[in-house]
Amino acid sequence: MKTFNLSKLGYAFVPNAIPSTLMSGAAFARASRMAKRHGGLLVGGSIELSLAGVSFKPHAHAEPLHVGLRPINILTANIRSVRREFGWLTGKVVIAHRDGEFRFYCFGAKTVAAQYAKYLSLGEA
């Protein structure tokens, strides 16, 4: 029986995330513009990849800065593909699933995407 467990720290794109008024004036204004323009925000947290699926849990210090953050869980049965996209400092891993896409930035994204696609038998990322 094959196993796969990988934990990464990074930033996930959370659709419909909006900044909290606990942010300071300039930071709140910038985050509000970004949320409106992109339909969500990048949120720091931990990403867990396993044969059961993918999960994202926001960092404790990120939760008060965003309204209504919740963990994200995607079951393996719903995953369609895993690929890596270019990023300047960190790469982006894109996991296409039944309800859309889950995107996160982390160091070693190329390796993460390739390994996860291989273990899920989805082919190379």
Give the topology.
Elements (H helix, E strand, L loop, with lengths): L4 E11 L2 E2 L5 H14 L1 E11 L2 E6 L7 E2 L4 E4 L3 E7 L5 E7 L2 E7 L2 H11 L6
Antiparallel strand pairs: 1-3, 1-9, 2-5, 3-4, 4-6, 7-8, 8-9
Outline of this structure?
The chain has helices spanning 25-38, 109-119; strands at 5-15, 18-19, 40-50, 53-58, 66-67, 72-75, 79-85, 91-97, 100-106. The chain has 125 residues and is α+β, with helices and mostly antiparallel strands.
What brief labels describe this structure?
single chain; alpha+beta; PH-domain like; seven-stranded antiparallel β-sheet; two-stranded antiparallel sheet; 2 helices; 9 strands; 20% helix
Low-confidence regions? none
- CATH level 3 topology: PH-domain like
Total of DSSP H or I helical runs spanning 4+ residues: 2
Largest sheet: 7 strands, antiparallel
Q: Report the end-to-end length measured between terminal Cα atoms.
A: 22 Å
Tally of separate domains = 1
β-strand amount: over 45%
CATH 4th-level superfamily: Pleckstrin-homology domain (PH domain)/Phosphotyrosine-binding domain (PTB)
Radius of gyration: 15 Å
Shape: elongated
Percent in helix: 10-25%
Give the mean pLDDT. Answer: 88
Helix/strand order: EEHEEEEEEEH
Total DSSP E strands? 9
> What is the structural class?
alpha+beta
